[in-house]
Design goal:
The protein has 4 helices and 16 strands. The chain is α/β, with parallel strands linked by helices. It is elongated.
Length: about 240
């Protein structure tokens, strides 16, 4: 396995205090130019933009902003109701032309994988909160980076434990509005995502967490996956396990 080495010799002044806000997202970007020009731009006070990490085509990783500081990378953005994405995320820039034809070298992908794995373990970041800039930019379509990145296979591979579930459920077809993914088993808990009808969910019931939801006429326990996210079991049917 390639070792993860980080060069912290270049630092950006374009940052602000994170305060008590926890890190719960990773956002991947593309530089739309060379790593050298990106380093100069992201560390220039005149640009008013920055990122936490930049990975060049040779796999060298630069840290421009410390994790405990906010980097200015997301711009106008939102993710499941969160509009201050900078404050709760880490930004990772990848050297790439972002034209859909410039490949991401294997060494660059490997360093990005190792960096993401380190941050996921350190900050307990959920699968659904590892995203691309194009996923969160508002209005939708405003950004296209990182274009042609091998997604979602890259992000799925960061969570191999999710492919080996103890039990397999599927969202009931009658749940036409989808089932909400939440942080903890409460109907007022923060929504992290939506499972559409027919989608799969892997996990186990949470003992003692019986809940009734108005309009469904039944009670069920919450189903928690190995990533610690929950979905109300009244919207799920067990497939196996």
């Amino acid at each position: 396995m390639t070792n993860l080495a980080i060069d912290s010799s270049r630092r950006s002044a374009n940052r602000s205090p994170r305060g008590s806000t926890i890190i719960e997202m990773i956002v991947l970007h593309a530089t739309v130019g060379s790593a050298k020009s990106a380093l100069d731009w992201l560390t220039s006070p005149a640009s008013k933009v920055s990122t936490h990490y930049l990975i060049d085509n040779a796999g060298k990783v630069y840290q421009l902003v410390a994790d405990d500081q906010v980097a200015w990378h997301a711009g106008r953005s939102s993710w499941h109701g969160v509009t201050k994405v900078n404050e709760c995320s880490l930004g990772i820039e990848l050297e790439n032309a972002n034209d859909g034809r410039d490949p991401y070298p294997a060494v660059q992908l490997e360093q990005c994988r190792l960096l993401c794995l380190d941050k996921i373990a350190r900050y307990h970041i959920a699968r659904g909160d590892v995203v691309r800039h194009l996923d969160i930019a508002t209005p939708r379509g405003r950004k296209t980076d990182p274009a042609a990145f091998p997604w979602p296979a890259f992000a799925d591979a960061l969570y191999p434990h999710l492919s080996s579930p103890d039990a397999h459920y599927r969202v009931l077809n009658r749940a036409t509005a989808g089932a909400t993914i939440r942080d903890y088993p409460r109907t007022n808990a923060r929504i992290r995502g939506v499972l559409e009808a027919g989608a799969d969910w892997y996990g186990e019931p949470i003992a003692g967490q019986l809940v009734s939801v108005t309009g469904f006429g039944s009670s069920a326990t919450w189903i928690r996956n190995l990533d610690q996210r929950v979905v109300w079991g009244g919207l799920l049917e067990k497939v196996r396990g």
